[in-house]
Structure formats: C-alpha cells, structure tokens
Records
---
Amino acid sequence: QYKCFIFDMDGVITETSEQHYQAWKQCADELGIDIDRTFNEKLKGVSRMDSLERILAYGNRSHDFTAEEKAELAYKKNENYKEMILKCTEDDLFEGVKELFEGLKEKGIKIAIGSASKNAPTLVNLLGIKDYIDYIVDPASVEKGKPAPDIFLKAAHDLGIDPSACVGVEDAEAGVEAIKSAGMLAVGIGEASVLHQADMVYAHTKDIQLADIL
Ligand code: G6P
Ligand code: MG
C-alpha cells in the first residue's frame, strides 16, 4: 500500500523546465557554447552548479573559469530564470495536477515535492498548491543531487514513511534513476524511450491513472 507520492516539480507539475532551458541557453550562447534540446535532456533534474559544469564540459571550457566566475555564471542564470517565473500563477499548473492531488488527499496519501530546485518553495506558492503539499525537500540539505537517491530518501525519512511505500514522479532521466536507487516505484512523465528505467510512463501528468498505480 503506497502512503506517499513524491513529485518532481519542473516538467511534472508545471512547465518550468522550459524556462530553465531558456535561461541556460542564454548563458551558453554568451559563452559561445551551442546547446540544444537533446543536450538539455541531460540537464533536467540536475542541480544548478552541476548543470553549469555539464554545459562547460560540453563546450570544452571546463577549465576556462575560476570557481568565482562559475558562481557568477550560475547566479546570472538564476536571476534570469527567477525573472522568467515571476509571472507564474495557478494557470501555469499542468492540467490534471489539482485533480491528482485531490485524489491522493482523499485516500490519505501524503504529497511531497522532491525537486533539485532551490526555487521550489517559491513556485509552490506562485502556483497556489501550498495547502496540498505535506513536505518540500530542501535540496541544500542533502549531500548528493539526482541521480543519487538522496532527495527522495530525505522526503520519505522526514515523513516517517518507508521508501518501499513511496511513489516518485519524474520527467528526467536523472530523476527516474534517483527514484529507482531509492527503492521506490518510478512513474515517468514523457517518452518511454528516454525514461526506460521507469516502472510506468505517461506522456503527460494528466494521463496518470491512480487506479493503475495503487
Ligand atoms: C530542477 C530542474 C533543473 C534545475 C534544478 C535546479 O531539477 O529540472 O533544470 O537545474 O532543478 O534548480 P534551481 O532552481 O535551484 O537552479
Ligand atoms: Mg523535472
């Protein structure tokens, strides 16, 4: 019997993975590194600094910047991103999310947010879903980001629920890997060919069938 659903945020609850991509694209363009959407799949679910490192490595520029310069690049990306999400409202919630949350609440199943994003609490407020959420993992409180299981295990631990009674919902390859390493059921959102490690994959969050999972 599942007692908790741990949702990734960007790309699962709302389409902010697009804003992350646009903000990174702008950063990469300024560095003369050409990134595209295929490469971006490798950035989904990956922390801010790790994303920057991946972009620099992709452009063979890993050793061109000091730690301070890298921190500045990441800071600029985040300022740009924050400006992009400023206008987010309840209307930006993916279709079906509220209904899904209602369904889980009715069954007494806890809802947690397991995002690598330090902006998750801000978005939860902007999207007007705060009252549904039992717990938001602070990604700064865990040692390793996705694909390590830490973020998902932290949610289970702090809610006092065994990982085997948790379901993780993810749109990222790194995220699905994290859920499986945590010993949880992995629900993928997107393409089955990309999320091949997931136990089940739905194209969109609104396609999730609770009856199939529970
Ligand atoms: C999520 C997104 C990533 C993003 C990461 C960190 O996992 O999928 O694209 O890099 O969060 O987000 P932050 O808002 O802390 O920069
Ligand atoms: Mg995501």
Note: The beta strands are 4-7, 110-113, 135-136, 166-170, 185-189, 200-202.
---
Amino acid sequence: KVLILDFGSQYTQLIGRRVRELNIFSEIKPFNNPPEDLSEYKAVILSGSPFSVRADDAPHPDLSEIRGKKPLLGVCYGAQYLAHFNGGNVEKSNTREYGRANLSHVETDNPFLAKVNTGSQVWMSHADTIKQLPENTQLLASTHDVENAAFKFDGEETYGIQFHPEVYHSTDGKQLLENFLVNIAGIEQTWTPDAFVETTVAELKEKLGDDKVILGLSGGVDSSVAAVLLHKAIGPNLHCIFVNNGLLRKNEFSGVLKQYEGMGLNVKGVDASARFLDELAGESDPEKKRKIIGRVFVEVFDDESKLVDGATWLAQGTIYPDVIESVSATGGPSATIKSHHNVGGLPDYMKLKVVEPLKMLFKDEVRRVGASMGLDKELLGRHPFPGPGLAIRILGDITPEKVSILQEVDAIFIDGLKSNGLYDSVWQAGAMLLPVNSVGVMGDERTYEKCVALRAVESTDGMTADWVNLPYEFLQKTSNDIINKVPGVNRVVYDISSKPPATIEWE
Ligand code: XMP
C-alpha cells in the first residue's frame, strides 16, 4: 500500500482516490502523526499544503526513515519541501501560477515520465516556486512559466513535481502516478472492489465469529452496503433496525423496508413517527430540532437494541472521509456551521463494540463495492438525504400536515427528475417548505397559501456545491404539477444559490 503524508492541501483526498483508481490501496496520514510502522508501505507521497516552506511554522517532518529507503514523490509543497531543505531555493513566484499550464519540456526517457507527452496539460496551484534545484538532482520537466516542474534526486527514487497529478485537469496525471507506483515502486494493482469484498468478509467472519451485531439502516448507500457486507459474513446474526422518524420521503419507509427484506437482510422496521413528531411539536430552532431528533433516535434505537438478546457489536456505515485526521491550516478545529452530521452517536452505557467495515473507503468506492455485490443500481445511485430528514427542510415548526405537504411536493420533484433522466446528473435534490404564505388566484378565488423552494445541486462531497441549470421546460412542468396537485401550495421558486455562501439545506 501507499502512504500519503498530508500537509493540509485541499487536494490530498484526491491523491488518495486517484491512487486507488489504479487499484492500489492508499492511506492518508497527517505529516505530524505518521504511522510508526512503515514496513507495509511500498511508496510515499507528500501532499501539497497551504503553508509556505519559507514560513517559520512550515511543516518540517523527519523523512530519514523514508528518503532513499522507499520511492518518494513530493507534490507541490512536497516538492518544494524536498528542494528547499536540500540546498535548493524556493521563492515567492512573480507570475500567477494557478490553473492550467502545459509541459514544454519532458524527459520522456525517464521511466517517471514514460507516456507523458510534451504539451500535456498540467494543473498548477501555488504561490511559491522552486527557483533553483538542489545540486544532486536532475531536471525532468518544465512548463513555460515554471522551469523546475519535475525533478529527481540522483541515486535514489525521490521525485518532486510542482503540478498536481491528482486533479482531472492534469491530463497525464494518472499516467504519472502509475509510472511512479507501478513502474518505479513495483506495486501490484490488485486492490479491486471484488478483492475488497473477499478480504473484508473473511476478516469480519474472523472478528465476529458467532457474535450478534446490530446495525441501524437509514436507506442510504453507506449503511446499506455495510449491511450487505456484514450479512455475507454473519448472515442472520446481523440484526438491522430501520427507524421511521416520520420525516422520510413519501413511501420511503415501506418501500425501502421491502427492498431490504428482498435482499435477505434480517431487518426490523420500527415506526416511531408519532413519537418524533410529538417531541418536535412547537420547536422552530434548527439546531434544537436536530438535537431532539438525535436524542429520540438514540432512545428508540436503544429500546430496540435491548430486544436483541446478547448483542455485543454495533455496526456503522462510517466512511473514510469521516475518519481521516485532517490537518487544518489554522491548526484549530473548524467552526461548527451546523451540528450535524451524524444523528446517532450512541450513549456509552450501551457498551457495544463498534465495527465499521467501510471505514477505509471513499464514497465512490462504497458504490463500486455495492455494485460488485449486486446491490440494486437505484439504491446505489440514491441522492444523499440528511439524517433529520424533512425536519430541516420545513423551515420553522413542524406539524404532520406540513410533513405531508412537503412529502407530496418532494415526490413530484424527484419523480420528475427520474422520469426526465435528470436524477443521475444531480448530486442532491429536494424541496423546502417556507414559513411564508403568499397571495395567489385559482379560478376566481383568491388564495393565501404556502410557498415551496426547489433545490438541485451538483457537488462531489457536499462541502461545496452549485445549483443545477435544470431545463426551463422541466421547471415549468414541475411547478404546474405541484401547484395543481398539492393543496395548500400556490407558489414554487427555484433556489439559485451556490455553497458557499449558502448551504445545501436551508436550515
Ligand atoms: P449543508 O446544508 O451543510 O449540507 O450544505 C451538506 C450535506 O449534509 C447534509 N446535511 C445533513 N446530514 N444530518 C445529516 O445527516 C444533518 O443534520 C445534516 N445537515 C445537512 C445535506 O443534506 C447535504 O448533503
């Protein structure tokens, strides 16, 4: 496997994913907390960073256990770090070096750059530049503005590149990573979804034996794939609990429950709608609504878990981005924008051991693993849906009537996206019920009814997002359908805000 030492670049996770797309397993660790045992890592990559090597507080890890002992690749800051502390010279660049550039000179004879073409587009993102390389290095590639774009240290497999091979805009970036990892480091490309399923199921069998495991299903991709993996390993000893909090999409509870049963899972559906809606009555504060839902979920889940006699494990669908220790530029934790993201987090007294079979996978890998186990395409392609569900899409207080209005509106929107072939090109979509009545006219009658906002965004991870340019004809038809078919709604608007500065959900 490959070790990626993170210096805090926004692209570090992309390096991890790109390496895995080559069917090579990768792990990301913070530069200031590297693994003690390096023996299993066949190569090391140093990421970019928001820091400057010239700053006093710049990351300055000890690489003596790595340099010359394993193939090493420094990307951007990683390259500048290698240059700067080995006799080279890094300075602030005079020209803007962001965005696309083209390689004007490439040493294609060097295996590191095999099949990388002169003229190939590369992606730059740096404020510093390597003015002079250390003496014991060989220059491998340049662009028009950046002479020292790629270099190698003599007598060791240590390379530096100024551009970012991990972003898609670097057209030969993946080739370059393959050259480094496969041709130079000699790593085998055996890490495939099928191989992951096989080894994970074997490990789970070994770890869990005849123990009973409880898992909360949400209808989402992660918990579903985790359930199927565990089911393969321990069959009926996996007890799944699917809670209806009354804030799911229309027909979601019964539909998804049937689907789970059809997959052979040992699943119990618990309809706690009334309890959730009761506890939420009269509450309009978004954070308090989230807290109530989180608490009631734990209570319901706890009651149900107690009914599973002798259970000793709790399984969770945690994925890799949730567990990567992040290096933040400020050193401190980032501000809480919304108290997310996991409804859940079970109380300590449950004393269950935790098993997280997807803990090392990125989201797209979870989907591929799901597909390799034959999970339904529709289930794997589902949009993300927040744990507190429609509660954070009903602005203000929640009543059963508002929930059912929003369920109808949402269903018309989502079904429309599906029947028009738009669903898969949208990352997430949904409707918001606004605490606003406005005047309308239907027939000869004046109406004074609710307004809904439709939102559809494209994103890769929900951290940033942009609104989707849905066809006008589609919006027109959807708006008509909603106003004609859903009593109580007389106005539809479309949200055209990006994140940042807006967020995806309205609460
Ligand atoms: P925001 O609104 O923060 O949403 O831009 C980013 C992503 O997170 C989801 N989201 C939540 N998920 N519990 C969840 O499980 C929450 O409280 C929550 N709030 C937002 C949102 O749907 C989007 O995918």
Note: Residues 2-184 form a domain with the Rossmann fold fold (CATH 3.40.50.880).
